[in-house]
Amino acid sequence: xxxxxxxxxxxxxxxxxxxxxxxxxxxxxxxxxxxxxxxxxxxxxxxxxxxxxxxxxxxxxxxxxxxxxxxxxxxxxxxxxxxxxxxxxxxxxxxxxxxxxxxxxxxxxxxxxxxxxxxxxxxxxxxxxxxxxxxxxxxxxxxxxxxxxxxxxxxxxxxxxxxxxxxxxxxxxxxxxxxxxxxxxxxxxxxxxxxxxxxxxxxxxxxxxxx
Length: 211
Ligand SMILES: [Zn+2]
Hints:
The structure is a single chain. The protein has one domain (53-210): 3-Layer(aba) Sandwich (Rossmann fold). The chain contains 6 helices and 10 strands, in the order βββααβαββαβαβαββ. It has helices spanning 41-49, 58-71, 91-98, 136-144, 164-168, 184-193; strands at 11-16, 21-25, 31-33, 80-84, 102-106, 121-127, 147-156, 180-181, 200-203, 206-210. The chain has a 6-stranded mixed β-sheet. The chain has a 4-stranded antiparallel β-sheet with strand order 1-2-3-8. Helix 2 packs across helix 3. Zinc ion (ZN) binds next to loops.
């Protein structure tokens, strides 16, 4: 079983439920679902279509405003950013624009403007995205190439519980579109791959990666 982050071929079966098996990489500690157990594109999109987030939902706006407020001290006004994997709405883009940033949004299913992936950015936000990536290594290395010198990643994802017992009961793994879960070691591996420093935790499951 090959780790989709560090490519190590040794992984042990960490947990399983009636839907999937979860493997843990010996080298970087990433917990991941085998790539032959991923949903089809069609089934994946169906699940995203059923997510309730919308512009008119004040709860969703408040949730993303929190992210913007935590990130803001590490950004400079006027900087350009990309909300990668924005989902069905442009709420985070709007919030950040109101706060003086130049922001675009990309989403494989809802805003697939590939032009945006040939530009450069001062920061790239992946809010509840990295746990969905089919090819986390390739995607993150690609996105790293879109960062300007001094660029940053802001990654929001729930860190994986260390114990199997906690993991087994963890709500986050029950979403079948979540296909890998990070811990401190796998975040360090991600940083190394992208030639960035180990992340700085900002709170609210947000991790800042910078040069
Ligand atoms: Zn690994």
